[in-house]
Amino acid sequence: MWAFFSIHKIRIIIAALTGVIVFVAITIFWDQSVMFRKKTFYHANVSEKVVALTFDDGPSEKWTPLILDELKKAHIHATFFLVGKHVQQYPDIVKRIIAEGHEIGNHTMNHKVLFDLPLADAMKEVRDGEAVIERITGQTPTLFRPPKAWINSKQKKEIQKLGYTIVLWRINTKDWVTFDDKLILNYVDKKDRPGDIILFHDAGGVIKPEGGSRIETVKVIGQLAELLRKKGYRFVTVGELIKMQEAHER
Question: Residue 238 in contact with residue 56, Cβ under 8 Å?
Fold first, then answer.
């Protein structure tokens, strides 16, 4: 009896641990955004060799200024998807992002995953984030990125009614896992296509949108700029990509 109970308990523990390992592996190595790309902008169908760098979860008091320094050295204008509560904390950094010619988008107020939220709660996250960005910058964002890409069809429709383009990505660098800069560089080198949107982060740890290290992100920007320019690419913002897509469709 006790032996059976112990074996049964061990099997349950092993099954639970296996489930956790599989979940972590999928989260780290598989880009879940592919499940949510329908009716979003994640790649531009253009022939010109252009790419857009995007940064999520900021601003960060420590990492965003360092990333801005690297972007300035590389002469790149990027798109930053800002979390409202971080905008409140670091308004001067947000103003620097804009002053240096970068584009901003809405990444919700509190970085809550929207998919399983009631529609009213999800929309509050969007509107509250928008209100903070408007108050600090004087700009009304027109680009929206859902945290972790998780968003349902009803939420997409309502967010688009507010005038937003919902933006995902085609290349996920997984820099939040703190992969080595050379690994990130090699991954992008194998995956890049004209019209790509590339996902980075300027804040956040493995679990939370706060904390964590973005040192590998800081290190890879200059290298990535050199690599892609050698391959004939130029860097644009997401807004510029959208205009190029619209021109291509005419």
Answer: no
Query: How far apart, in whole angstroms, are the C-alpha atoms of residue 151 and residue 157?
Result: 10
Sequence-distant (≥ 6) Cβ neighbours of residue 51 within 8 angstroms: 192, 194, 195, 196, 197, 198, 228, 233, 235, 236
Q: How far apart are CA 45 and CA 167, in angstroms?
A: 14
pLDDT bucket at 7, cuts 50 / 70 / 90: low
Which long-range CB contacts under 8 A does 114-121 form with residues at least 24 apart? 114/146, 114/147, 114/150, 114/151, 114/152, 114/155, 115/146, 115/150, 115/151, 115/152, 115/155, 119/154, 119/155, 119/158
Q: pLDDT tens digits for 161-213?
A: 999 999 999 999 999 988 899 999 999 999 999 999 999 999 987 777 777 89
Contacts of 47 (CB under 8 A, 6+ apart): 194, 248
> Can you tell me the distance from the alpha carbon of 4 to that of 131, in angstroms, rounded to the nearest whole number?
59
Read off the DSSP letter of residue 138: S
Among candidate residues 102, 181, 201, 202, the one labeled active-site is: 201
Q: 147: which 2 tokens?
A: 């945290």
Task: Identify the active-site residue in 43, 56, 102, 192.
Answer: 56
Helix, strand, coil abundance in the chain, percent, nearest 5: 55, 15, 35
- Mark whether 56 is an active-site residue: yes
Assigned token pair, 140: 């009304």
C-alpha–C-alpha distance, residues 197 and 119, integer Å: 27
pTM: 0.90
Taking each helix axis as running N to C, give the angle between helix 63-74 and helix 91-99, from 0 to 180 degrees, rounded to the nearest 10: 10
